[in-house]
Design goal:
This protein is of the alpha/beta class. The protein contains 16 helices and 16 strands. It has helices spanning 33-45, 60-72, 86-95, 112-119, 123-138, 156-169, 185-198, 218-227, 249-258, 274-285, 306-314, 342-351, 359-375, 381-389, 435-447, 491-508, and strands at residues 14-17, 50-55, 77-82, 102-109, 144-149, 173-178, 206-211, 232-235, 334-337, 378-380, 398-406, 414-421, 424-430, 452-460, 469-477, 480-488. The relative contact order is 0.11. Bound molecules: 3-methyl-2-oxobutanoic acid and zinc ion. 3-methyl-2-oxobutanoic acid is lined by residues 22, 81, 107, 147, 149, 177, 179, 210, 212, 515-516.
């Protein structure tokens, strides 16, 4: 790619992370408030400029999560998504109140198909709604972003018109989404270049892009836009997001760092924290990272073939264009062990964004840490995250209590399971086609959820044969999908916890609003 037309005065590229909003829109990837806060703290350590924490009006839970992230984050700007209605903007502003730096991101669809079939609005009314929303948002903050949804399929003349109007109304960032991942890099680059040249007040706003990966082009399209003057990229950790996902933060960040010769701008990320963010997001959402995924996949820096290994040993540059340590591959270190005290435990947890609401909660977590440290001598950050993710929430109806099982290669397994359901302890025995099946049958005998299992996967959280196994169970019921996670040094116990977690998730899932599904209100 050539540096064709970037004349942007600013050589700083803003990294806007939307893992907690667009990433969470992936079916099954919903996160609790505490999980969002932990991820936000990890993104802040990575030095992400803007963290989109959620869609505040979606549900009371989403509102509380945006508010908690706004209160926890000190360095990054915290953003909430809002449609153009006054209720949306006001709810976003309210949730962002505790933030040191806040941004309201308002959007409305601009493509003919979305305006006609989804919004059922005339183009003039769409412009008026966008201008009204931006003006209202400016009453709460100077930092207002506007997105013409489905810009990739919108008519350029209409895009120019609405963008000029919202900049006049006070929008400071114009984000151009390729909502359905339809554009090709040369087209998307040209779209951005033309906007910057044709819109009279373009110099008053920062141009941003938000690309989806339906054709596997989200990163390429984002980079083409940067080469044409975009100075903000919206992206997610591990490329999480609706359908095929969003542009992956780690790929955008490392492409720009590795090919600085091609870009007239750079971002301010501390890339050594990429791996820990990737592991955290994967652990919390239960979306594993494919081994051959660029930058963060297990094989990304592994040299399998003899010829490659020989080359790398003689001179690493023969086959390596980046250093594994620059993205944090060597960062996984032992942080605590059997002899670590309460203070060391609490301090490390705080560094990871894990907080305890009361002394009792800390005592309980420390007790579980000690039990884990007895089974597993080296405790990594990933183990601490799993330890706190495993705690039952106050509103959980079903709580895992204990499991005994017998397995042998010649006889069917026997499990004896205890759960607490609505505060009542219940016990059941079951058998099945393997221990995991027997455990799931036992749970269903007690709960009769009627949920359909869509996925079961097991990953080791850290290295070593004593590593905790992290199990993900995906359940579907009435069109809702949730992932449940459970971790334990015994994968059968982890499976039981994951199934229970998913069942609770199904129950918690209120009718959350999807920002892009409804009509404009
Ligand atoms: O993909 C999209 O268009 C979005 C907008 C809300 C920015 O996520
Ligand atoms: Zn999106």
């Amino acid at each position: 790619m050539n540096q064709n037309s970037s004349s942007a005065a600013d050589d700083r590229l803003i990294i806007f992370d939307t893992t907690l909003r667009d990433g969470e829109q992936s079916p099954g990837a919903s996160m609790t408030k505490d999980e969002k806060v932990r991820i936000a703290k990890a993104l802040e350590r990575l030095k992400v400029d803007v963290i989109e924490a959620g869609f505040a009006i979606a549900s009371p839970g989403d509102f509380e999560a945006v508010k908690a992230v706004a209160a926890a984050v000190k360095d990054s700007t915290v953003c909430s998504l809002a449609r153009t209605s006054p209720q949306d903007i006001e709810r976003a502003a309210e949730a962002l109140q505790p933030a040191r730096r806040k941004r309201i991101h308002t959007f409305i669809a601009t493509s003919p198909i979305h305006m006609r079939d989804k919004l059922r609005m005339q183009p003039d009314d769409v412009v008026a709604a966008a201008v009204g929303a931006v003006k209202l948002a400016r009453q709460f903050t100077d930092d207002v972003e506007f997105s013409p949804e489905d810009a990739g399929r919108s008519e350029p003349d209409f895009l120019h018109r609405i963008i000029e109007a919202v900049i006049d109304a006070g929008a400071t960032t114009i984000n151009v989404p390729d909502t359905v991942g339809y554009t090709l890099p040369h087209m998307f680059g040209e779209l951005i270049r033309n906007m910057r040249h044709a819109i009279p007040n373009a110099d008053k706003a920062i141009f941003s892009v938000h690309c989806h990966n339906d054709l596997g082009l989200a990163v390429a399209n984002s980079l083409a836009a940067v080469l044409n003057g975009a100075r903000q990229v919206e992206c997610t950790i591990n490329g999480l997001g609706e359908r095929a996902g969003n542009a992956s933060l780690e790929e955008v960040a490392m492409a720009i760092r590795t090919r600085r010769d091609q870009f007239s701008c750079d971002h301010g990320l501390d890339t050594q924290h990429i791996m820990s963010c990737s592991r955290l997001v994967s652990g919390v959402t239960g979306f594993p990272v494919q081994p051959n995924k660029a930058i963060v996949g297990a094989n990304a820096f592994a040299h399998e073939s003899g010829i490659h290994q020989d080359g790398v040993i003689k001179s690493r540059e023969t086959y390596e264009i980046m250093r594994a340590e620059d993205v944090g591959w060597s960062e996984q270190h032992i942080v605590l062990g059997k002899h670590s005290g309460r203070n060391a435990f609490k301090t490390r947890c705080e560094e990871l964004g894990i907080s305890f609401a009361s002394q009792g909660e800390l005592d309980e977590a420390f007790k579980r840490f000690k039990i884990l440290a007895d089974k597993k001598h080296e405790i990594f950050d990933e183990d601490l995250h799993a330890l706190v993710s495993d705690v039952a929430q106050a509103e959980d109806r079903i709580v895992f209590q204990s499991l005994q099982y017998q397995a042998s290669s010649d006889k069917p397994p026997q499990v004896d399971l205890q759960l607490s359901i609505d505060g009542q302890c219940q016990q059941v025995q079951a058998t099945g086609d393997g221990s995991v099946d027997a455990v799931f049958r036992a749970i269903e005998q007690l709960v009769a959820s009627g949920a359909e299992m869509r996925l079961f996967s097991v990953n080791a959280i850290t290295q070593g044969t004593d590593a905790q196994g992290e199990v993900t169970v995906r359940l579907a019921r009435n069109g809702r999908i949730v992932n449940g996670q459970g971790a334990d040094t015994d994968v059968i116990v982890a499976s039981a916890k994951a199934y229970v977690h998913a069942l609770n998730g199904l129950q918690h899932m209120e009718q959350r609003m999807h920002p892009q599904a409804g009509e404009a209100i």
